[in-house]
Amino acid sequence: MIVLGVDIGGSGIKGALVDTEKGELVSERIRIETPQPATPEAVAKTLKDLVSRFDYSGPVGCGFPATVHHGTAFTAANIDSTWINTPAERLFTETTGLDCYVLNDADAAGIAEVEFGAGRNVPGVVMMITIGTGLGSAIFVDGKLFPNTELGHLILNDDIAEHYCSDSARQRHDLSWKKWGKRFNKYLHRLEFLFNPDLIILGGGASKSFEKFSEKIDVRTKVVTAETLNTAGIIGAALHAGRCSDAGIKPNMAPCVSAEPEEKA
After folding, report:
1. Phi and psi at residue 2, in whole multiples of 5°?
2. Alpha-carbon separation of residue 252 from 58, 166, 167, 256 (angstroms)
3. pLDDT (0 to 100) of residue 78
4. Distance between CA 127 and CA 125 in Å, rounded?
5. pTM of this structure
6. Could you report the per-residue pLDDT of 55-93, keeping only the tens digit for each?
7. Neighbour tally for 146: CB within 10 Å
């Protein structure tokens, strides 16, 4: 199945057509700058512009930097605060004229990794942590997603974790990778204490520099980098939308349980 996947971020909105059977992009990836301010109406218009650049008329999956419950955004990270309580799925669907399925961006990246990347066929608890402007998180138990975890907002060293050890915090405090790695290691220890994961997958921009701070990571849990790299959000969003559509679930109608892995033959 070919589905359009979109990754909506604070600085850019990226999209591509995805073969959801293979987890591969089958078109060029198009990126448009996120409008500033990133209000609901402005982002929706930009999404419509992006969609129009593809010869496509099926469901659209959108990874979005917010907790998304029943199609409504309840938080706003690195976008305009007016997104809070906005029915994102309904807005995107009405604006584009296509069925748009919206989920948390870290959840989307995690879906891609569990289905096609480092978390594939890994039993137990798998955590995906995206390291960028903030810290995104996704948790899977035996391949099934527990959606909308916001573990970047755990309190760490009397601060919000993502203010302490996100990539933007590294840049803001002008930290070397090794000094920042010590901070991030504290965060991983907290996650390990709370969840006892079997695998932690690192994604986002900072994960590309893993070798620069990996020596500072000493948790007992295995820590690896994402295999789907910067396409994870697009692939996961497309997979989510395809499954919801196949299940006959309309946007903003009900939670999509089809984001769980399909039975293997």
Report:
1. -100, 125
2. 17, 32, 33, 10
3. 78
4. 7
5. 0.92
6. 999 999 999 999 999 999 999 877 899 999 999 999 999
7. 11
